[in-house]
Amino acid sequence: MYYQPKRISKLNQELMHLIDRHYQQKPYYGVYRMWEWLRKDKGYKVNIKRIRRLYRIMGLEAIGPKPNTSKPALGHKVYPYLLKNLVITHSNQVWATDLTYVPIQNGFLYLMAIIDLKSRYVLNWSVSNTMDATCCQTEKAVHS
Fold first, then answer.
1. Do residues 93 and 142 both lie within one domain?
2. Other residues' Cβ atoms within 10 Å of the Cβ of residue 86
3. Which of 27, 60, 97, 122 lies in the 20 to 30 Å Cα band around 75?
4. What kind and span of H or E run contains 102?
């Protein structure tokens, strides 16, 4: 009456063990290179989709450059850097804020931080599971 999850097959367990050991030595191997290594060097006749699924199950991801999302689109206005000629000499002179995302199993968490540029001290931060304006509003006054 209830769904009984299937056990992981012996072949998948064996492949996951091999992938794990090889990934520790070469964390820059993505799905395609790992699939080639298993096929050519180890002699396994497996589909690349299986390796992709095992990577997902194991939570693996190749270490390497990701798409450069910081490049502006064509025609996008580039704002000038207003602190270019400013010499920062003491704390509390200049603060900065940053909003970034942290990947988790089922999505992202968004981290907003306010830092002092001289001391690199984190003045305030907040974490949210949605990227809306309330995540960036600090409710407490920032004290130094």
1. yes
2. 11
3. 97
4. strand 95-104
- Alpha-carbon distances of 68 from 33, 34, 71, 72, 73, rounded to whole Å: 22, 24, 6, 10, 11
pLDDT by residue (tens digit) across 88-104? Answer: 999 999 999 988 888 88
Quote the percentage of the chain above a pLDDT of 70: 93
Mean pLDDT for each consecutive 10-residue tract of the chain (144 residues)?
A: 82 94 93 95 94 94 79 85 92 92 81 92 89 66 43
Q: Closest by alpha carbon to 97, among 110, 78, 84?
A: 110
Structure tokens at 141: 């006054």
Among 96, 90, 133, 132, smallest CA distance to 113 is for 96
Show the domain range for 25.
Answer: 10-58
For the chain, what is the domain count?
2
Q: Is residue 1 part of a domain?
A: no
